[in-house]
Amino acid sequence: MPANNLGKISKVEFRKAWNHEASDFTNWLAEEENLRLLSDEIGIDIKLIQTEASVGKFNVDILAEEENTGKKIVIENQLEATNHDHLGKIITYASGYEANIVIWVVKEAREEHRQAVDWLNEHTDEDLAFFLIQIELWQIGMSPFAPKFEMISKPNDWAKTIKQSVGSNKVTETKAQQLQFWEQFKNYAKDHNTNLRLQKAYPHHWMNVSIGSSHAHMALSMSSFDEVMRTELYIPDNKEIYNFLYKQRDKIEKEFGMKLEWMELPERKASRIKVETSGLIDNTDEWETYFAWLQKTAEDFQRVFSKILKKYK
């Protein structure tokens, strides 16, 4: 393309798109595709519960949850520079809903408030995370406006991992290794053009992955002790769905091209459908081999199970 045909990118004033913070911007952000943009920036799957949710005399802009875990999320929007009033509100809302994740979306992040959010992350444990996100609007020529989220402050997971594990060097090393494994897996999958919606990496032996259903999700796991690596469909509390899938067992396994392990677990609420192979997280030289297996099996699970679950009534 000749250089003289290239467009010019320009920044757009917010009020051209959203005249009112609550009725315009909050409603825009609460739409599924826009929450997904925010999800992609943060690395967690955000599922809307309610806009303008009441907390005493106040209303939180967006109340949501992490799709795979049910952890509560509060989102406070501010189409202006950060201020002390909104900083106080996000803490109030987090307390009121016992939220695990707090997201402050702003036009401009002042340095003193970035420092305040950093301080909150440094002085809380792994179960509470604060994110400060700056949003901008851009346009090329007369194109539609395009939003761009930018992470200003986020939790320091390495620091929290070490802090949580004080008193046990072995546990600290294991947690740090688990976090590193899943972070590198996310990078590997991204570099290999995955269509998986991978959540934020945590220092656990597992990683949950959305499959597009509120009734089930995938779980990838890499054990630190029994030399087993797994991909499974986890159904938290619905034996009816498990039976719905089990009746199609032959068809499902034919699509996979392999046998799966079907675990109804009648004495428990949850059910599982899984495949596993050998693997040990300590074998760092084999991580890329493990990543390839996890990505392939997870994409197969998503391809097969997501379309069948959509047919469940």
UniProtKB/TrEMBL annotation:
InterPro entries: DUF4268, tRNA_endonuc-like_dom_sf
Domain DUF4268: residue ranges: 178-308
GO molecular function: nucleic acid binding
Full protein name: DUF4268 domain-containing protein
Annotated organism of origin: Candidatus Zambryskibacteria bacterium CG10_big_fil_rev_8_21_14_0_10_42_12
Lineage: Bacteria, Candidatus Zambryskiibacteriota
